[in-house]
């Protein structure tokens, strides 16, 4: 099985676009469809033809180009069962634990409610890839627009159970702001401070901070580290549940 080729680019203001291409079959999937023109330009530059759109959730900055791209290419749109009525052009609804095939590459659906009620992530286990959209960011997580802190915490736990070397592609370039916040929650984390300095340099040079890995996020992302004694001490929540600590971190980020 040929290795997948990926192309990462910006859409809108800070959305990431990602194209996933199988060179053996020519199949190409767009992870969400934030904006038509950057996707078309990337397809043309790479000489690829769009065959699939893998939609993670219904927010307009992730589905805006669904219909126009489907009309242009006849692409198959796959999306979350829990938001099926809200996904423009949806052809196939998938739920938690379902598997489907993308050009010979197995894809596992992981339901991650929290940011929206029916948000899903796409895990390519054999390719060690996770497309997390607005559930898990580098040094962050999505805002709780439709879910609870408890549901988002459980969603993040599902993702952190994946292998540490899983590459994580996320929905927005929020990493610099996330880093500034993270060090206020986990100030003694040497790995975090080193990473924050690297992020400053990367962004000042115009580089992207995606992808990250599950292992790196577990070491440095405060939203995944609710059980850490030092974070609990900083928050004065030594005896609270992990979900309660997570909720406090999320509240502080909302007001940061």
Describe the structure.
The protein has 256 residues and is an alpha/beta fold. Helices cover 34% and strands 23% of the residues. The strands form 3 sheets. Strands 1-2-3-4-5-6 form a 6-stranded mixed β-sheet, with helices on one face. A hairpin with a 2-residue loop joins strand 7 and strand 8. The N and C termini lie far apart (46 Å). The mean pLDDT is 97.
Helix content: 25-40%
Percentage of residues in DSSP E strands: 15-25%
Please state how the strands of the largest beta sheet are arranged side by side: 1-2-3-4-5-6
| Sheet/helix structural class | alpha/beta
Helix and strand sequence: EEEHEHHEEEEEEEEHEHHEHHH
Helices, by number, come to 9
- Gyration radius over CA: 18 Å
- Uncertain regions spanning at least 5 consecutive residues: none
End-to-end span in angstroms? 46 Å
Shape designation? globular
Q: What topology emerges from the helices and strands here?
A:
Layout: E1 5-11, E2 15-21, E3 28-31, H1 36-46, E4 52-54, H2 60-63, H3 66-73, E5 76-80, E6 92-94, E7 99-102, E8 105-111, E9 120-124, E10 129-133, E11 136-137, E12 140-141, H4 149-160, E13 167-170, H5 175-185, H6 190-204, E14 212-213, H7 214-220, H8 229-235, H9 242-254
Parallel strand pairs: 3-4, 4-5, 5-6, 10-13
Antiparallel strand pairs: 1-2, 2-3, 7-8, 8-9, 9-10, 11-12, 13-14
Helix pairs in contact: 4-9, 5-6
Features:
single chain, alpha/beta, six-stranded mixed sheet, globular
Could you give a quick summary of the protein structure above?
The chain is α/β, with parallel strands linked by helices. The chain has helices spanning 36-46, 60-63, 66-73, 149-160, 175-185, 190-204, 214-220, 229-235, 242-254, and strands at residues 5-11, 15-21, 28-31, 52-54, 76-80, 92-94, 99-102, 105-111, 120-124, 129-133, 136-137, 140-141, 167-170, 212-213.
